[in-house]
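Cast an eye over this sequence plus tokens and explain the fold to me:
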Amino acid sequence: MVTEIFPGVDAKYSGYLDVLSTSEVDDPGTTHLWHLLDNEEELIARGIHPVGTLVCVHGNPTWSYLWRSLLSHVSDNALPWRVIAVDQLDMGFSARTGKFRRLADRVNDLGDLIEGLGLNGKVTTVGHDWGGIISLGWAVAHQEQLANVILTNTAVHPAGFELPAALRLASNPAVHGWGTKSTDAFLRVTHSLAQPALESDVRKAFMAPYTSADKRTGVANFVADIPFSEDHPSRPALEEISDAIRSLSVPALMLWGPKDPVFSDRYLRDLMGRLPHAQVHRFEGASHLLPEDRDIASPIFNWLGAERDSKNSSRATALSDYRPMLAELDSRTDDHSIAVVDINPPRSLSWSELGERVNALAAGLSQIGVTAGSRVNLLVPPGIELTSLIYACLRLGAVIVVADAGLGTKGLGRAIKGAGPSFLIGIDRALVGARFFGWPGTRIAVENLPATKRKLLGVAHTVPELLESGNSAAHDAPTFGEADPDADAAVLFTSGSTGPAKGVVYTHRQLAAMRDTLRETYNLKAGSALVAGFAPFALLGPALGATSVTPDMDVTAPRTLTAAALADAALAVDATTVFASPAALANVLETEDALDGRQRRVLENVSLMLSAGAPIPEPLLARVQGLVPNARVHTPYGMTEALPVTDIDLAGIRAAGSGNGVCVGTAVAGAQVAIAPLDSDGQAGNEPLEEPNLTGEILVRAPHVKDRYDRLWITEQVSTSIPGWHRTGDVGHLDDHGRLWIEGRLGHVLHTATGSKTPVAAEQAAESVAGAGRAAVVGVGPAGTQAAVVVMETVPPARRASPAPAAFAHAVRTAVERTGLEISAVLLVPDLPTDVRHNSKIDRAALAGWAATTLAGGRIGKP
């Protein structure tokens, strides 16, 4: 009997039920005593009729305690559910049967229990670890009674994978008995997977049912029953369930900890292939014991109560009828004028050559198994190769996965594993990373490799081989069907400046809408010639019918773009349009003295200069205007989820003057902007308003807004919680002329004793002081009593991080206080930490933590 009260579990939930067994492993008439955590009596006492029943099944070596958050969450839930968390036989505090219970027996046992409980209504199954396949085994056999399926880190089939190392070791005959039964080693190893580590009382609770070897027989048998070999006795049951779940049509939710060393992302991808309609959320940083690592109760009950509309509702009516991304390329098969140019090494393709190369690559990719819906990760710098591969994938209806190398190895790997591509095409450096870090996907090298290197990197194909095989099949005149406009076309990753980079999914229709928005807003017509110094625009040139060139620079480090490199790229195509990030333009201006007369003249021919990625100060934009004197200088505002959203030119910035934030202009063609005002606690509301001078979260709707976040269901629900709108996470207001002003990020709002304050106006004031560089204003301390701290660069740069000299600090305080914000401290740093993609978005979260430590008396190190 359970005599202890365990942390997080009300004793009233604990109970027992004697259940008749129909399992073949038991003698006829055998009954077993099951232990359950069940909230039915609480619901009855409160006169509540539940909207449904959850049956939660743990794995090995946990017990029903794993699901306590679902039980405790019910009392606060507007839609109460009955929650039954079971202890499987030979596990937890249920009976030790003395029998070796295999997978089929455990599925049968669960059916006996559900029948013994008299559950005649609809049931939602919830499973973790081996409880996942057991719950699914019951689900596929009782589909008439099944309401929903919820899974956390589990697997239903080896799917061609080797047994995970931890389980391989535990099942080894030399280790098995000692590791799983004689000692509690297997339990301790499993508990150590929690991220963060389990509290000592919680660890003791998980150990409680397994305090002696005889109580751990079920733990040992569970490991021994893993059907990793084809002749294993449980393999037929495993395969039957694995195949049968494809027939499930009920709503499904998968919540996953990607750091799980046992059930890694490859098992998630396998499950997604079997349940393609499932909603998925990956909790970055979480591991195997997901219910311990993260709050799963809130998203589960939100999902159960939500209307499950799989399409993003934040898209406005399209600007025009849908025109495929390849339409312009296909219309120019006999055009021998230049389409794309590479600077280093020099190379160019005409429109007809580009079309032939795209078709040959598409044919070659098709021959190695790339089909519509296949995810293809492209780790290739902008240029002819990347352009050709992008359009070849679009031709096939494959989904391009683009994660910027500027995310860093860790961030890049996290993004790639999250997207789960089936194919990975990369340059040598990317292939080394793929091999070393185990990134998923059949590896394809951009260039031919020596046999030894090819084998070492695990390369299966090369782009030259694909071209050769595609060209050799040309006589067969391969035809490619038109891609479904509403099928996935691309997964583009955010910069990671506000947390782990998120995958943003675009359909073919939305990519086309982005192209159309740019064309309508900036009059970018076929025949234009553009310099793409901002990587996101590299894929749009051929779709716009524009001749494109990427300057000689490291696109992952925008500050490597020099004025000479920009001018040489413009000269190569007689450019009319230039795209570049603010960080890139800053370095261009620093190096403009190196320009010769010819280079200056070619820049005078530019008629449109666009800079996106971060707001640009007016003085910098004015200097850019001097570099391209005949150009319209524009700075669109947008994000990976919707680019662009608004636009403003230099004249517009000057007309707007100074204000609370940075003016980014009015909505672009087809877009609409609104504000969800902040309440007294600094939280954004749920009503979209277009009234002027209301500070709140910026909302956008447009035909080119993303379809969804990839495998981030919870994040997607938050971003679309106002029907018809995308929440940007940015804070700002509309002025009396309908212009949008950016005041910061929602997560950067300061919650002071005098109310919520946005940071941008205060930062601009600090930067106006003589000798000031970039500044960031961050909140230090508890919400509601936060102190405002300025962390800033100086000109010339400070040698090391330190408190500002008294006179300079006084000047900064005086300037900032005119904006209505009182400053507690001014700290100087040589360089503010920024995101690696744009080199311009300041990492305020890192600065806030550093400032708090510094002001508390910690060692003043680098932020």
Observations:
- The first strand starts at residue 14 and ends at 20.
- Confidence is low (pLDDT under 50) at residues 307-313.
- The two ends are 54 Å apart (CA to CA).
